[in-house]
Design goal:
The chain has 309 residues and is mainly β. The chain has a single domain, classed as Beta Barrel (Lipocalin). The protein is built from no helices and 19 strands. The strands form 3 sheets. A 12-stranded antiparallel barrel has the order 1-3-4-6-8-9-10-12-13-16-17-19. Strands 11-14-15 form a 3-stranded antiparallel β-sheet, with no helix packed on it. Strands 2-18 form a two-stranded antiparallel sheet. Keywords: Signal.
Length: 309
């Protein structure tokens, strides 16, 4: 395949809101990441992304499973915009880049019969610095073999937030997120131009919410995808698993039961590259398969990515 461009990787922004004064939140890009996890575009310059998200959840799970005492319904949408800049310099033979994104969220939430609409600006998600290096060979523009990426990301709390609403689009919390990604592309096979295996590991370190003195525990998250490249198409299955390893705390003391969060979801991902306009489109769905101490999320994502160089 001669036209293989790295535009499907810009899955930015923040899809997790904050449940009022406290609750389970963690920082990361929209729906995690999936295909082409470790790639950065090979050409320096500016790249942009627009993301639309539709999400729905109506099942709340506590430490033991689905909670019979909590009735929740949350339909919501997000429109997100992101920019990526690839630097015109190399470091140890690898590509350097930085990204930033924010957007607007809206919807409604009903908890035990109390209903409230919400809308507002999201927090900023930024890949402060990313470094990507391909360790294999190139075949007709395709990066065969292993590519690795190291990054440091943050969530910067500029979004709408207050302590009385049931749900807010901002979290009022800084997150520090070291991360690493690995992508391996095989040679051509009977299915198409190559099978891709991708994984992206995040460690989410939350700062205290100074409006409530609430601090979320340490969360580890892995996003995985297996897909096949077929001409301009890339088709596969993607999912994530996130788990909290330390207790939440308020005023420096652990909350009862720890409120440790866990979530897993899986679903299809389909991308289509359009080299004529240096752009790509992608659809992704994530269906919840496991949840603890959170609302079980189901979401669909539509991405449009464009190179401006």
């Amino acid at each position: 395949m001669k036209h293989f461009i790295f535009l499907g990787i810009f899955l930015w922004a923040l899809s997790r809101g904050a449940m009022g004064a406290q609750g389970v939140t963690y920082g990361g890009p929209v729906g995690g990441t999936d295909i082409q996890n470790a790639y950065l575009p090979p050409d320096p310059g500016l790249y942009g992304s627009f993301i639309f998200v539709g999400a729905y959840g109506d099942k709340f799970y506590d430490n033991s499973g689905r909670s019979p005492a909590t009735s929740v319904r949350l339909p919501g949408e997000i429109a997100e915009f992101g920019l990526l800049y690839v630097y015109p310099v190399k470091l140890f033979g690898g590509t350097l880049g930085s990204s930033v994104a924010t957007g607007y969220g809206w919807g409604s939430i009903t908890v035990n019969g109390r209903r409230q609409n919400f809308n507002g600006i999201n927090d900023i998600y930024t890949d402060v610095l990313m470094w990507s290096k391909h360790l294999g060979s190139f075949d007709a523009g395709m990066p065969r073999g292993l590519t690795v990426k190291l990054g440091y990301s943050m969530v910067i709390p500029i979004g709408k937030y207050n302590t009385t609403d049931l749900y807010t689009t901002g979290q009022n919390t800084y997150y520090y997120i070291p991360n690493a990604a690995f992508t391996y592309l095989t040679g051509p096979n009977f299915l198409g131009d190559g099978t891709e295996f991708s994984a992206h590991f995040f460690l989410d370190v939350a700062r205290k919410n100074f409006a409530t003195n609430y601090k979320n525990g340490l969360v580890a998250d892995v996003d995985v995808a297996i897909s096949e490249v077929i001409g301009r198409w890339q088709v596969g299955v993607a999912g994530y698993y996130a788990r909290q390893f330390t207790d939440d705390s308020v005023n420096g003391q652990p909350v009862p039961g720890g409120n440790r969060f866990a979530s897993a979801a899986v679903g299809p991902v389909v991308a289509y590259n359009i080299p004529e306009c240096k752009c790509s489109v992608k659809f992704k769905a994530q269906l919840s398969v496991f949840t603890r101490n959170s609302l079980a999320p189901n979401a669909a994502y539509l991405f449009f990515n464009k190179a401006f160089n």
